[in-house]
Write a structure and sequence with these properties.
This protein is elongated. About 40% of the residues are buried. The chain contains 14 helices and 8 strands.
Length: about 375
Amino acid sequence: MARRTATAPRPDASVPPARPAGASADAASRIAAWQRRAGRHGLPWQHTRDPYRIWLSEIMLQQTQAATVVPYYERFLALFPTVVDLADAPQDAVLRAWAGLGYYARARNLHRCAQALRDGHGGRFPATAAELARLPGIGPSTAAAIAAFAYGERAPILDGNVRRVLARYFAVEGDPAAARTAQRLWDHARALLDAAPAGLDMAAYTQGQMDLGATICTRTRPDCARCPLAPDCQARIQGRQDELPAPRTRRAQPLRHCWMLIAECEGRVLLERRPDAGLWGGLWTLPQFESAEALAAARDALPAGEAPQALAAFDHVFTHFRLRIQPCRLRLAGAAPAPDGADRAWAPLAQLDAYGMPAPVARLLAGLYADTPPPR
């Protein structure tokens, strides 16, 4: 049930809109009936009309698989039971609860959106997709999903799984992420709803599209024999299930480098908070440098007690690049210098879990201190 936020592109006035192929009048009903019979029903964000829980799951499921999301979702709700609780929480607490899910702008936007709901809507979610889409971090597909699940609104969605289902069902050519192809897919999504009966179960239909893409109409080896859309699916009829949707155009992944300083003193390690904008925005991480020379200058300014130790470099993969991290460990002599500013802290090794850190940094420190007694 991993879901991605899809952005509805603005129509190009110079190009006539593509006419969607005639959608079967019962296609949407077949999807809803299939979901009720064979879809997934045991995920913790299902069987609720609470827009807060639905919104939280939709944001977490963007570019993240359901199995990964479940423990984060449950922990998040335990910490922030309502949207006002989330709005009132410090950003550090929100980022700490999010740490490990990645795409941290989602967490910052989640917090901003909660504050906007508290301050401008009395802590209540708007009841239409159009109003929901005006809130921070909520795109048109996410807004439509919330409106469908919480309020039964007839609004089309277009997350990553649904793009694949529609691209195959209507035999849509082109990269689904390209603006013109995405516009055609939005047209088809609306056409399916326009052709559906007035009494369509929107929760089952919306969930059914997601479930189809996640469990049946998968990226490879789609299970057409079990698909409710198989009788009139154009990709199946044409034998093009492996060709559609067209593979996304991918650029070569550049390799970037950074150097990190692990400065230890009196059972503590030096952390600094990243700026909100940019990589790992708002999270606590090790002091980070763009060159070995910059690292050496910062290291030499500290009262070293032992010779610095270069640890094994490792790569962390992001969507558009790989980051090669070179850690350097330094044990300091004497008392820890006072941190310069609120965005630096000497974190006790026994309390690192209290700091929201990027997954690779958390793993690095956990591995480093798992079998080593903290320095005293």
